[in-house]
Design a protein that fits this description.
Layout (H helix, E strand, L loop, with lengths): L3 E6 L1 E5 L5 E3 L1 H12 L3 E8 L3 H9 L5 E6 L3 E8 L2 E8 L18 E4 L9 H7 L4 E5 L1 H4 L5 E2 L14 E7 H6 L9 E5 L5 E5 L2 E5 L12 H14 L4 H16 L5
Parallel strand pairs: 1-4, 1-8, 2-6, 4-5, 8-9, 9-11, 11-12
Antiparallel strand pairs: 2-3, 6-7, 7-10, 12-13, 13-14
Amino acid sequence: MRPVAVVGNLSLDRIDGGPPRVGGGPFHAARALRLLGRPAHVFARCAEGDRALLVPPLVALGLPLTVLQASSTAGFSLRYEGDERSEQVDALGDPWTPGDASALDRRIRFVHVAALVRGDFPAETLAALARGRRLSLDGQGLVRPGRTGPVVLDADFDPAVLEHVSILKLGEAEARVLEPGALGIPEVVVTRGPGGATLWVDGGPVDVPASPLTAADPTGAGDAFAAVYLAARSGGEAPAAAARRATALVAALLRGEPR
């Protein structure tokens, strides 16, 4: 079974005013893939000065890991009030270049691109990553502007970034900014937290319910869902079955699986 890969920037996350902790798609996706037991390789980057905080938690998960050099580390402040979340970008990470794609083994055929903001993965980089591979993309890379300050979503993205994307993962807020069924992507998955997910495949929406959850820290749930969904699809599961598997595994994480 060929491994899937996750690529993206690590981040320094501050939750509800707490101290910085490891964040970013590679970490949260790796937590889920470890539980899934599927071969996977994680490609991440952060600044040298932040490696001591950010890299050991990834290493502890036991997945093959490649950490690329970066001049800066992404940073986010998040606050939760019930089901509402506010976000602020404290710092931007380095954009990924077409040359960075050479770090991926040619045997890898399925890649989740865990973009944090628009500009993390320009169109030419996605084209390089997509050679001989199937890509999924986090919709944050479309609607979250690449600037510091409070996050205000918009749809001012380069349409060229979608040319090589097979699966697009959106959160509910991102789906309100975009039109999931009109993007020309073969598969669009909208995660709805406790409401499960909605699939846009073959032109029509299909709802996949989730089991109710008690209060939990949902940070990174979307990254976990996207990675498991892609892994399931790479193993031949149909979209609805892959979404059910992903919602179940994310629920397991939110019930208290160790970080």
